Amino acid sequence: MLSAVLLCAAVASAAQDSAHVVIVATTDVHGHATAWNYLTNRPHPGGLARAARAVDSLRRRYRDQVVLVDVGDMIQGDQFAEYFARVAPRDPNPIIDAMNLMAYDAATLGNHDFDFGLDVLGRAVEGAAFPYVSANVVFDPGPKLPPTAVVRRGGVRIGITGFTTPGVMVWNRRQVQGKVRITPILDAADDALAAARQDSDLSVVLVHSGMRGASAYDTLGVGAENVAARLASLPHKPDLVIDRKSTRLNSSHTDISRMPSSA
User: Fold this and answer.
1) Is residue 253 part of a domain?
2) pLDDT tens track for 205-222
3) CA distance 116 to 126
4) Please, which residues have CB within 8 angstroms of residue 5's CB and are 6 or more apart in sequence?
5) Residues 6+ apart with CB under 8 A from 53
6) Which residues span the domain enclosing 225?
7) Nearest residue to 97 via CA among 51, 151, 48
8) Structurally, how many domains does the chain consist of?
9) DSSP 153-179
10) Beta carbons of 100 and 92 less than 8 angstroms apart
11) What is the pLDDT of residues 77-101, one digit of tens each?
12) CATH no. for residue 225?
């Protein structure tokens, strides 16, 4: 799944002080690094190999304006992913290697990224040439993920914050019990977004969660599964939320009038 959003970051004090930022996101790639279905032995109408062509095209059109991110569920899902996780592991993971070649700027974790266990996930995160960000996933022991990464495009500081559905604590209990703590998204979100706002002009959230709706598990002590829409009601609400249900290739313009004149 690939989506693109074109943001017009406009400074209110001076019309000439403006910049276009193109946010391109993948989500639920599920191991499809190549454009081939290894189960049917036929071409697959997707995968990072095909997404790379679209990303390259956008980068040619919007030079030095594209930010490429992923919203999770990347390293698990097809026979390609299974082979390099369980049969012939290598570093970096070939899926992460493909992401490195595509020059991703940031990613967050999905629940299925935990399916192969923490060793496989940890090596994948360590092999990434881009930051994995999460404000609600804590490994103990394991990699410490930054809550936010800041990238610059056209003088604009883009703060990218990540969140993962706490359903991992239910679905992946065997892999994470006693080793990973995933707090409810809304409990962690406002403080993380307030801190991100201090270092950025444009606040972007990658959230492996649905927009709204019932959870697929008992949320008592765990936290709700689908809360992306509720981020807009926080005191420090983000400018853009990219959730795991973002499936369409689209383009839109948003004016960010509160940005400082130094952007």
Assistant:
1) no
2) 999 999 999 999 999 889
3) 15
4) 22, 23, 25, 240, 242, 250, 251, 252, 254
5) none
6) 2-243
7) 48
8) 1
9) ETTEEEEEEEEE-TTHHHHTHHHHTTT
10) yes
11) 999 999 999 999 999 999 999 999 9
12) 3.60.21.10
